[in-house]
Amino acid sequence: MALLFIDSGRKYGKINKNVYGHFSEHLGRGIYGSIYVDENSPIPNIRGIRTDVVEALRHIRVPVLRWPGGCFAEYYNWKDGVGTDRKRIVNAGWGGVVEDNSFGTHEFLDLCEQIGCSAYIAANVGSGTPREVSEWIEYMTFDGDSPMANWRRQNGRHEPWKVEYIGIGNENWGCGGQMRPEYYADVYKQFNTYVRNYGNHRIFRVACGADGNDYVWTETLMREAGTHMNGLSLHYYTMPGYYKFDEYPEERKGPALEFDKPTYYRTLRRALYMDELITRHKHVMDRYDPKGEVSIIIDEWGTWYEVEPGTHPAFLFQQNSMRDAIVAGVSLNIFNAHSDRVQMANLAQLVNVLQSVILTEGEDMVLTPTYHVFDLYKGHQDSTLIESYIQPQLKGTSEAMVPALHVSASERADGRVHATVVNLSADESQQLHCVLDGQAFSSAEVRYISGTMTSHNAFGHPPQVEIKKMPVIPIKDNRLDMHLPACCVAEIVLS
Ligand code: AHR
């Protein structure tokens, strides 16, 4: 038995819905065939954008989508991807395959409009110029008479789009130019100068932040350019093979579906490390920005395993199991807990790449366990974080102990309370005794996913992981008892 305490009277900040954001790159089968098909394809689509994928994404209320990379962004020229004469280029970073640029700015912003989400554009700093970025912004957002706005109109779009976020560079410590933080800080300010706000539209500027635990990068960027940015990014991937966090790079990733219990707990421990990363980057930022005006934007996170056997090594296609769902559940709980600074997070990546919410094969589409976590957690979007504690218990192996349970709770605008609880144990269910405070509750609705640690959904097989509902649980004297299966992510809605 574990005690869970939730107090809706103790309110913290708002959880920005963009914490539930996603990321889509021109990488492997991440866009072509999966999101974007030929308009004449038998797969139902609107202007080439797959209807089934859009419907699934609308259902989990995707709030923001980052594009076109990743490392791809750092060799992308947006002008190759507009108009009727699209350049065929080599996607040199991801397998050397042909990129025909048929999915470009218009198609991406059409996708965002169909999903109903904000656009987050990653601009090319490593191999591009300030003029290219400046013209791209003018092309997308300027309403008046100008060369770029008129070119947009010629290409079929009269009204400007409302692009809300721009990332000025991607991984500029690595694939974005191998820069030192001092050098990048100067380059950032140079590029940022030419990102114009047109009319009343204010574009939110994100500087490239640290790779995992590189606190020196954060320190340097905050010191040299902190007053020129709205957000600073952070990239961290969960790779199971290695657990000594200080020696982070070059780890053994291991397969996505064939793993043992020690590897499972090691993976979870590595995912939980996100909490320390955010806390320590926040401490550095607090010194330069005590009012918390610069947000942390975790614009790449998720699991990274070996590719599925027989698939292209550069396409980063991996299956997705309950292990990924547990990683997603604890990560999203951690982002909620840091909602004072963490204003956006983007899971890598949307479809068919790394920890995807959707997998496609021809016309077939599979919703992964991670997809269901985003469904269970969507009630947190724009809700108010409230106090919640869970009785500490440990699970795991001597090498990787993790908390047995993990929780986050928020209050929605309609007064209903939404708690998400993760049972990290691979094989032990839990009896939860919930003590509620702050208001009188009468019933709880519980939706959840659970399985073995390797349960997953595969093409041509009935799904092993789907959302189930418990019968409505009555609440007496603000006390609630419930059973949580092993390896489980649950949403509890109290009213
Ligand atoms: O998400 C895959 C790659 O991981 C991205 O292109 C890059 O930014 C990161 O290293």
From TrEMBL:
<comment type="similarity">
    <text>Belongs to the glycosyl hydrolase 51 family.</text>
</comment>
<dbReference type="InterPro" id="IPR010720">
    <property type="entry name" value="Alpha-L-AF_C"/>
</dbReference>
<dbReference type="Pfam" id="PF06964">
    <property type="entry name" value="Alpha-L-AF_C"/>
</dbReference>
<keyword id="KW-0326">Glycosidase</keyword>
<dbReference type="InterPro" id="IPR013780">
    <property type="entry name" value="Glyco_hydro_b"/>
</dbReference>
<dbReference type="InterPro" id="IPR017853">
    <property type="entry name" value="GH"/>
</dbReference>
<keyword id="KW-0378">Hydrolase</keyword>
<dbReference type="GO" id="GO:0000272">
    <property type="term" value="P:polysaccharide catabolic process"/>
</dbReference>
<dbReference type="GO" id="GO:0046373">
    <property type="term" value="P:L-arabinose metabolic process"/>
</dbReference>
<dbReference type="Pfam" id="PF22848">
    <property type="entry name" value="ASD1_dom"/>
</dbReference>
<feature type="domain" description="Alpha-L-arabinofuranosidase C-terminal">
    <location>
        <begin position="299"/>
        <end position="488"/>
    </location>
</feature>
<comment type="subunit">
    <text>Homohexamer; trimer of dimers.</text>
</comment>
<dbReference type="InterPro" id="IPR055235">
    <property type="entry name" value="ASD1_cat"/>
</dbReference>
<dbReference type="GO" id="GO:0046556">
    <property type="term" value="F:alpha-L-arabinofuranosidase activity"/>
</dbReference>
<comment type="pathway">
    <text>Glycan metabolism.</text>
</comment>
<protein>
    <recommendedName>
        <fullName>non-reducing end alpha-L-arabinofuranosidase</fullName>
        <ecNumber>3.2.1.55</ecNumber>
    </recommendedName>
</protein>
<keyword id="KW-0119">Carbohydrate metabolism</keyword>
